[in-house]
């Protein structure tokens, strides 16, 4: 089936991400909130192994995190149950929900080997009090984070399993598109169990839905968590 990815209305360029991959403030090109590294907002960049914890739920929050390279995930613990709440790609800012209460609301782990920059929350807000451009950037970050939550509800609420899987693939593709990575063959850094948790489905339902989408020629499944999107518009029609 011929791909219709070329019919996208989304531009295949970075959309002004404040921390584009490989261009955080430790890199020569700097960032949107501290272009000349005047305030040295990013303390350090550290490598994490897959599964390693960056922040733990209910612990005091001192840092925000920006993915320089790799993938991360957040989860919420409710009693004996653990639910995946979000997946992150390069350029994403993590732990914004910890800003107000200064407590991490989720546990954040590296889903793959990842390089992550650390931003001191106290220093960020101290600088924001002095520099309107930094304050405006912080507001944009928080608004974007809230927008993601609303968009997630719109995509997944009251949808059947196949539609949720289609919406997830569209979401993951668009996340990459917005950071300038338009490839339609995606290496999923998350297990089917994690995807099931994120979408509130059973693992076997995820597998069955993926197979159904493949039978409709909307996707092609490969080995080792790799999938090709054959029809973006076809997947989008489920949303």
TrEMBL record:
PROSITE patterns from the UniProt entry: CNMP_BINDING_3 (PS50042), HTH_CRP_2 (PS51063)
Annotated HTH crp-type domain residues: 159-239
Domain Cyclic nucleotide-binding positions: 46-120
GO molecular function annotations of the record: 4 iron, 4 sulfur cluster binding; DNA binding; DNA-binding transcription factor activity
SUPFAM superfamilies: cAMP-binding domain-like, Winged helix' DNA-binding domain
Keywords recorded for this protein, A-Z: 4Fe-4S, DNA-binding, Iron, Iron-sulfur, Metal-binding, Transcription, Transcription regulation
Listed Pfam families: cNMP_binding, HTH_Crp_2
Role this protein plays: Global transcription factor that controls the expression of over 100 target genes in response to anoxia. It facilitates the adaptation to anaerobic growth conditions by regulating the expression of gene products that are involved in anaerobic energy metabolism. When the terminal electron acceptor, O(2), is no longer available, it represses the synthesis of enzymes involved in aerobic respiration and increases the synthesis of enzymes required for anaerobic respiration.
Keyword Iron: yes
InterPro entries the UniProt entry points to: cNMP-bd_dom, cNMP-bd_dom_sf, Env_Response_Regulators, HTH_CRP, RmlC-like_jellyroll, WH-like_DNA-bd_sf, WH_DNA-bd_sf
Listed SMART domains: HTH_CRP
Top-rank taxon, per record: Bacteria
GO cellular component, one term: cytosol
Entry annotated with the keyword Iron-sulfur: yes
Name used for this protein in its record: Crp/Fnr family transcriptional regulator
